[in-house]
Structures are given as structure tokens and as C-alpha cells.
Amino acid sequence: QDNSFEQFIINYCNEKLQQIFIELTLKEEQEEYIREGIEWTHIEYFNNAIICDLIENNQTGILAMLDEECLRPGTVTDDTFLEKLNQVCATHQHFESRMSKCSRFLNDTSLPHSCFRIQHYAGKVMYQVEGFVDKNNDLLYRDLSQAMWKANHSLIKALFPEGNPAKINLKRPPTAGSQFKASVATLMKNLQTKNPNYIRCIKPNDKKAAHIFNEALVCHQIRYLGLLENVRVRRAGYAFRQPYEPCLERYKMLCKQTWPHWRGPARAGVEVLFNELRIPEEEFSFGRSKIFIRNPRTLFKLEDLRKQRLEDLATLIGKIYRGWKCRTRFLLMKRCQIVIASWYRRYT
């Protein structure tokens, strides 16, 4: 109910995670269809980049203004920080304040004078401005760090490396907000190099109890998690996509024309393969570099056929090996029989 600086930076991290979720699941997927030349009708969705910009913009972002208030000379209080927010963010559609220039908020009695409200992707959150400046400064006096570094206990000494006289830095230490922003940027850079899989958890009730289903709560979560847009994209799109070369390499054994070797382009080989298997045309589309399969059942069918074909090939290999082994033994026995017979006839 009472949100301060800590909850603000946690929600900022949630916004960034939601943004990368949108980038990877909604925006990038639709752009891939267009890039591959697949016929596609764009599906609208809410992009929370505007909220992230409100918080992290280097000039007009809330974190930038908070750092500016912490570093500027003169009397700095939480109220002066809120005044600065009202001046810079007054016209932003996701920022609300009692003192904002936007007249529609002047009569909002649910918003106290010492608070501001941000409309996050998950809903509106009100923040108490009290303590923002002190918590963002996050300063530890230099002489205290040096005293702790001189302790005999190794753990305490390790916790305060900045107290080492050899590493004294006269520069002002970075604020908590800027450190957190840098950490979030590192996290985002790391996630963008991966291929993440998402699991969305829906809370059926706020009581953490079994056999209680709050329909309004579930619908609210489905809306703000962007699941509706995600389902629309998935249903209208394709469940599976793969470059032509690996697709042909995996399934070429299902067609006599492509097995064991296909000499032409990979796309042509995939077309021959799918025509041979008589897969309905509405179940797949050919992109510039990938094959797109619409329904999972088509992919399951291919995998089942491949599994059966592998069993048939294993049986064939076993049959040929057993024939070779028996013939080799037969030829050896035949040679031995000739030698024995010749020696016997000579003896007789």
C-alpha cells in the first residue's frame, strides 16, 4: 500500500523485463514474418517502451532528475524533487501528480500532495516521495569505510573494499538509482543474447488458498501480462519455423527423391519432401530462408513418420548385417569343405 524508492526501482526492472518480453514474443515474431515474406496482418499491442523512457531517459527521466537533485548544490528535499517532476513530466500521459499542470488531476482527492502516480503496464502505482533523495544517495561516510576496512575480521574487511587507503577515490560515489539502472542494462544485454522461454504464472486468488478462483483477479492478470495479444499472434502465426537446410537434413529420409542425398537447393528439396508427404498447403508456408509450419500436429506427424522410418532403417541395417555375417560364415565353411574334401580324396 505504501510504495517508496525500493518499490519504484523494482517496478522499473519489471517494466524492462516486460519490454524484452514484448520485443521477443510480439514485435520480433511479427517482424520475422514480414522479413520472410509471409503474408501477415499486423496485430496491435501495447508497447511499454514509453513507460521505460519516462523512468530511464537520460535527460527527462525520473531517475535522471533524481540524480540531478542529489548532486546539485543548495537545499535539496523530497518536495523539491517532486516539484521538478511536475515541471518536466507534467504532460506525460503515464505520469500523474496532484501538483501537475494537467488540470484533470487537480481534483483527484485520491492522490496526496506528497505523492506521484505512474501508470505501469500492470496498472497504476502511487509512490510516496518521502525518502527518495536520501535512499538514492546511499552514501557511507569515507572514514567509516576506512575504519571497517582496518578491522581484524577478514569478512568485515572484505565487505568494505572502498575503505582501502590505496583505492581512495575522491569522486562522489554513484547513486543507488544509477547503479540499479546499470545493473538492469547489463541484465537486458545478457538476456538479448539468449533464447528465453517464458512461463507466465496466474494467481487464482490473493489468499494463497486452494479451491478459490477469483475471476476478476485472473482477468486483470491476463490483460496486463499481455497474454491476449500473445495468444492472438500465436494463433494467427506459425507454431514452428526452421531454416531449410536443417529441416531437409532431419526429414529427407521420408522421401525417396531426397534420400540419401539431395543435390539441388535446400528449399527445392523441402518442397519435394512436403509434396511427397501430401501435407496440406494451408499447414505450411515457404519463407525466404525458413519453412513455417502452422499447427503442432503437422510437426508431430513429421516426427512420428521420422521415428517409424528410423525403425525401418534400423531393421534394414540389421537385416543386411545378419545376411553379410551368415554369407561370410557360409563362404568360410565352403572353403573349408573344399580343402577337407580335396585332402580326403587324395587320401583315398
From TrEMBL:
GO terms for biological process: actin filament organization; actin filament-based movement; endocytosis. Residues 184-206 are annotated as: Actin-binding. This is MYO1B protein. InterPro entries: Kinesin_motor_dom_sf, Myosin_head_motor_dom-like, P-loop_NTPase. Residues 1-307 form the Myosin motor domain. Keywords: Actin-binding, ATP-binding, Calmodulin-binding, Motor protein, Myosin, Nucleotide-binding, Repeat. The lineage of its organism: Eukaryota, Metazoa, Chordata, Craniata, Vertebrata. Belongs to the TRAFAC class myosin-kinesin ATPase superfamily. Myosin family. GO terms for cellular component: brush border; cytoplasm; microvillus; myosin complex; plasma membrane. The gene is Myo1b.
